[in-house]
């Protein structure tokens, strides 16, 4: 039996998500919006029977067993922790909260309820090109997977901003290219190689501080350009440039994985590779010509049933594949809350989400300081009032 779905959020992701869920056989039972008007309008548009602006109304519905959290990031941790506590499966959009402290709460909740699904929507993991890229790396196309030398990422796309001032315009509320695009890149690198980020260096810039639609007293603080380097724990170097300055809704993404033997590259949704082969038995000119062509490993020919002018095609296709994997996880079992792990094994966990959040925090610090910064993973929640705690400790010592 497939579980009933509750959706948190009324934005572009929700409008792509709901048709995919229905296509795969899921029943969408409820939707939440920040205002009742927003929720009602989206419910009518998507033909969802129940709408509300109260979080608990969705979570407490008996026929909702799996929630998709695709609202503003400031609510991700709160809804995830509450949903897991009530016994609901959770798929949360990136990022995992606004900071590491929020991500840690999500991790703790997921660890406390291990029988529930708790995954982050890093949908590029499910894009076939990256699944084949990972398999090619593991199978030794580039030699020993631990001897990869460089990953080079280039993402060029249009603006991420909407027609009104909202959280997308504000860096502290989860807006900007680092959080919305960079988080996918950081997660993808670990997924492809199995290596963890240890040190980072980054430059974040907000070049467009106002637009025709967003101007006046409020300024845009969300970065529209970032470039960063990641030093991985086994010597691999990652370099990435993310640029939101192209006109219109366009999206170009190239990801090269290099070793001393050659490279693999994903362009859009296609995977190609090339090795440095030298055949000593034929003339140099012919040798060059023979190896000008790349190996075609995977070509994406599948059409999407639902598209969006806002969300890039690779992310939508990955999301569709992730929903298919969720269906496979739930379908073989008879109880609505039971599931099998294998189909969703590739998905990003809340721990992965925290590691991405830690990397992004280090990148922001690096951009401010202008130097390489070590990634530090929180294991304990930060003290909300360190000055008060120090005073209490001093009082306790003096009383002894």
From TrEMBL:
Source taxon at top rank: Eukaryota
Gene Ontology molecular function: any one: nucleotide binding
One Pfam short name: GFO_IDH_MocA_C3
Gfo/Idh/MocA-like oxidoreductase N-terminal domain residues: 5-111
Gene3D superfamilies in alphabetical order: Dihydrodipicolinate Reductase, domain 2, NAD(P)-binding Rossmann-like Domain
Positions of the GFO/IDH/MocA-like oxidoreductase domain: 131-264
SUPFAM superfamilies for the chain: Glyceraldehyde-3-phosphate dehydrogenase-like, C-terminal domain (SSF55347), NAD(P)-binding Rossmann-fold domains (SSF51735)
Keyword Oxidoreductase among record annotations: yes
InterPro entries assigned to the protein according to its UniProt record, in alphabetical order: Gfo/Idh/MocA-like_OxRdtase_N, Gfo/Idh/MocA_oxidrdct_glycsds, GFO_IDH_MocA-like_dom, NAD(P)-bd_dom_sf
UniProt keyword terms in alphabetical order: Oxidoreductase
PANTHER family: BCDNA.GH03377
Stated family: Belongs to the Gfo/Idh/MocA family.
Protein name: Glucose-fructose oxidoreductase domain-containing protein 1
